[in-house]
Write a structure and sequence with these properties.
Blueprint: E1 20-24, H1 39-49, E2 53-57, H2 62-69, H3 72-78, E3 81-84, E4 89-92, E5 95-99, H4 102-106, H5 108-124, E6 135-137, E7 142-144, H6 153-166, H7 168-179, E8 185-190, E9 194-199, E10 216-221, H8 231-234, E11 240-243, H9 247-258
Parallel strand pairs: 1-2, 1-10, 2-3, 10-11
Antiparallel strand pairs: 3-4, 4-5, 6-7, 7-9, 8-9
Length: 260
């Protein structure tokens, strides 16, 4: 699927590193979920970077994104822009630029209200397996996992398949929306085992304020459907959005669109 403002294959010779930026989701786009990007992907991105500026915008923190791309040094050296936690932590040309903080924004009382509701909900949840770390506190969001982020890869895969049938995360998000209807919060499902909770406006479009100099901003992501954590930036008027189904699909579309 292609975004509303991108004809398939749109790219012209006037595009260059100064006026064109290509942003990527990480999980399911540059790498399999929570796994490492392939050498073939890295080679494709290096070819792309010779033509345009490149960046990543992921929901995870810098450490987790770096683990999937290769290393922190590699990540910061080979991407012009790195937006961790949807852009709330921002690096440009390898240098730290800015960081927002959910605790300062919401306050301890509201934060505990969300965490307490999460733990009560998970306690009553009936699913095949539960592990640990049901709530992961990040600078810009809370990441909530019904099975717990301490699950093994096999357990992750099992939950993902189970969730596709039983919609555990979708039901949780519906319950959270009802419980916190009085708060300006957004709930966004991404990856395989979790969903994010963050102040409204702190989705991946948050990063766009830092890239206003570019005439064209492309975005590639796999969770672009309504409710997915790529939807807002994919459908934003500022971006040329493309939906991908896997890292291999990303590479194929990059070669086609940018004539690599």
């Amino acid at each position: 699927m292609v975004g509303h403002n991108q004809p398939e294959g749109e790219f012209d010779s006037t595009s260059n590193r100064d006026n064109t930026l290509v942003l990527f989701d990480v999980d399911g786009t540059l790498s399999p979920s929570r796994k490492s990007a392939s050498e073939a992907m890295k080679e494709t991105l290096l070819k792309l970077r010779k033509k345009v500026s490149v960046g990543v915008v992921g929901g995870s923190d810098l450490k987790k994104i770096a683990e999937q791309i290769g290393s922190q040094d590699y990540l910061l050296s080979n991407f012009d822009y790195v937006f961790a936690e949807n852009g709330l932590t921002f690096y440009q040309d390898g240098q730290f630029k800015a960081q927002a903080n959910i605790l300062k924004h919401l306050g301890e009382e509201t934060l505990q209200r969300i965490i307490n509701f999460t733990l009560r909900y998970v306690a009553d949840l009936k699913i095949p397996k539960k592990r640990g770390t049901f709530v992961e506190y990040r600078a810009g969001m809370l990441n909530i996992s019904p099975i717990g982020r301490n699950c093994s890869q096999e357990e992750r895969d099992e939950f993902f398949a189970y969730d596709k049938i039983h919609n555990i995360r979708t039901q949780m998000v519906d319950a959270f929306k009802k419980e916190f209807h009085d708060l300006p919060l957004t709930f966004s499902i991404g990856g395989e085992i979790s969903f994010d909770v963050f102040p409204t406006g702190w989705d991946k479009t948050y990063c766009l304020q830092y890239v206003e100099k570019f005439q064209k901003v492309y975005f590639f992501g796999d969770r672009t459907q309504l409710g997915g954590n790529d939807h807002e930036i994919f459908s934003h008027a500022r971006t040329i959005g493309t939906t991908v189904t896997s890292p291999d699909d990303t590479r194929e579309k990059l070669h086609k669109i940018f004539q690599l």
